[in-house]
Amino acid sequence: xxxxxxxxxxxxxxxxxxxxxxxxxxxxxxxxxxxxxxxxxxxxxxxxxxxxxxxxxxxx
Length: 60
Known about the structure:
Elements: E1 3-5, E2 8-10, E3 26-27, H1 48-59
């Protein structure tokens, strides 16, 4: 089922990206599952996307 995230409706199987939020409010009237991946905004290494961008620039 769906739920609301900070008052905004979210349907089952939706993808939500949250950045720089001080707090999140999740509300649902039915039981469900929520999958969360949390990571820091900046990491101390090159990400896969950054490595691929460098490779693609080398091919141009």
